[in-house]
Amino acid sequence: MAHPLREKAAISGVGETAYTRGTPKSALALQLEASLAAIADAGLDPRDIDGVVPYFPGGGIAEDLVANLGLPDLKLSVFVPMGGATCVAAIQTAAMAVATGVCKHVLISVGRTGYSGARVSTRLQQFPQFALAAEFEAPIGMFAPAQLYAQGARRHMQLYGTTARHFAEIAVVTRQHAILNGNVVMNKPLTVEEHHASRMISDPFRLFDCSLESDGGAAIIVSAADRARDLRKPLVTVLGVAEGHPESPASIAQRPDLLEFGLAKAAPRAYDMAGVGPKDIDVAEIYDCFTFTVINQLEMLGFCKKGEGGPFVMNGRIGVGGELPINTHGGLLSQGHVVGLNHVVELTRQLRREAGKAQVKDAEVGLVTGYGDMGDGSVAILRRAA
Amino acid sequence: MNAAVPAPLPERPLPTPTRDSQPFWDGMREGRFMVQHCTGCGKARHYPRPVCPHCFSMESTFKEMPSGGVIHTWTVCHHPFNFFFKASAPYVVALVDMDAGVRVNAPLRGVAEADIKIGQRVKLGFEPVTKEITLPFFVAG
Known about the structure:
- The complex is a heterodimer of chains A (386) and B (141).
- Chain A is of the alpha/beta class.
- Helices cover 35% and strands 18% of the residues of chain A.
- Chain A is globular and about 55 Å long.
- Chain B folds into two domains: 18-65, no CATH class; 66-141, CATH 2.40.50.840.
- Chain B has one helix spanning 22-29, and strands at 34-38, 44-45, 60-64, 68-77, 91-98, 103-109, 121-128, 134-140.
């Protein structure tokens, strides 16, 4: 029997602001600007929104959205506290809301001043999920995700022979895609040599292995599929979606296998719900907080075996025109960091054939992941409906 | 800025022991590696927390455990995300599989970066940083 959520929800609208380093706007203003763009893209009126899943912390919450968008009858306000896995996991929450009839149109939105506002080392202190890290790891000099995730990357290199050249391939190809997109922070070509020469942040991560601290906003509308069919844009349905939580969710250090996290549980569930497998995916937008994180997730997603993610990304496979184009918009590494909601925006555009110079030919089925909060994972498989 | 007034030194981030973790930090202060053990099933757990995830017992005791272990992985921190650590960067942080059956993450001292290997034996040291707080570090062992 088909999963009860399969194709019951659709991504009916997408919107984003300019991605920059530096802005006079507040995170809330960026979030609202992107939200209005997504609502217009869907052909809806702001008053049609009756459910909200704002990214938290940062930007506005339901009260701000009601006050600014004049939402007359909000029926659902929830947070999905999964860090970088939030935005894709929120698609599952929103799909449940529209499939059951609780809501008609749910707004998922992010506004971030990651460059001009609080930077990464201070921002994390706001997360209750980081309390253990604050007590046991910050005092010994481990604060930032770049440090906490570096130990997993180092272990992958030692166990499987993954190299900085593999990391560089992700950075370089992602930059090529960013240049095709245009609305990006990093708009100049990057070479493997420049990657290798960039300063070390936390070994093995160099500067160009790390995602951007940037300003911007993004938003999507999740609607009931039968309603979305009559809206403005080609129908893109949620074929499969799932979230997963790792062992030792608040401490990577205490996790039995540092290289096995929430996505390992979520991916089989999403594929089962969708009725497709890795071979059916035409384009993938993979949460790229770090280059290595993409390699690790490709393994969890079953595109290759554990330990083989490094060689897998080489030889043109992940570029537009390759076997599995990845992060066709420039990702968090080169476009901007709006906690991966830009990945959902891009996948939707790919499936609508609105991706411009980065368009993957005949893209029918695509996959997007979220990854965050020390290893929470989420994945959605979207389809261009007939 | 007035050059005559030196900028205040950056504050060291310190742990705030909780009701659950206080015995661990008390042990550190006394130079003892105290690990929480479930009274019900005997399993060790770290970081300290109220319930055993194996048998759901809320009864536990802290036992002093051996201070040795082997390196599971490591990183070398070059960029100081907190200004306090600027003076010590680059510094190695090793994640260690302790003989006690839990992991500890702490700075590794006195081992050259090129010589670090997974599986290498190290032992825990204790560095008092305030009257209340002693932090862990590792040396070859």
